[in-house]
Amino acid sequence: MSARSIVLLVASLCLGVPAVLALDFGDSDLVLLREHLNHPFAFGLLACTLTVLAALGLRWAWLRTTVIILAGLGGCVTLLGGLVVTAFTAAKEVGYVEGPGPYSIRLRESTGGLGPDQVTWLSVRKDDGFLSKEWHLGCFDDDDPSDAFDAVTWTGPASVEVRVTDGRTFPVTLDASGRPRTTAELNC
Q1: Of the residues 15, 38, 92, 137, which has the maximum number of CB atoms within 10 A of its CB?
Q2: Quick one: which H or E segment has residue 141?
Q3: Who's near 2: CB < 8 A, 6+ residues apart?
Q4: Which of 35, 15, 10 is nearest to 25 (CA)?
Q5: CA 118 to CA 150: how far, in whole Å?
Q6: Cα(160)–Cα(181) distance, rounded to whole angstroms?
Q7: Which residues does residue 172 pair with via DSSP β-bridges, in sequence order?
Q8: Helix-then-strand count for the chain, H and E
Q9: What residues contact 138, with CB distance under 8 A and at least 6 apart?
Q10: Residues 71-85: pLDDT tens digits?
Q11: How far is CA 165 from CA 39, 108, 123, 171, in A?
Q12: Which of 94, 184, 171, 93 is nearest to 136 (CA)?
């Protein structure tokens, strides 16, 4: 095996590990991990590509062919899986509601399931540079028009009020770290 193949194989392993670990980044409170390093399909596809390139340097034809076929199939499955997941989970930024101090509320919208309804996602963000954190605050699906998200306002330094279109309100308090003690959800 050539030195080039060894380097490519080590590089593919170094990318394969973050691909697996990235599956857990979605549960992290740290914004850096969740938003910037949470790309398991991209890491996986790049790892499969580097494995194919590394296999080109193998001496035995049967082993070279087997590794190329397996890595190629893995890359195809990773690409297809990434496209499907992205199609059904993509959410667009709607805006931010500035809060007291380092806090803000992030608003995102996505299509609910296969239907025309909109789902609004709310989260509390505590800005602190690389150590910024974000927590789930609420989710509102407009299957029932009276349950659709209307507005969110800060009612104090550690309290938020979420309102839906029929006028109902959901008060949420934050603990000392900024994490919501409760969440507000309708039809999610």
Answers
A1: 137
A2: strand 133-141
A3: 57
A4: 35
A5: 12
A6: 11
A7: 160
A8: 4, 8
A9: 121, 122, 162, 170, 172, 183, 184, 185
A10: 899 889 988 988 888
A11: 35, 17, 19, 15
A12: 184
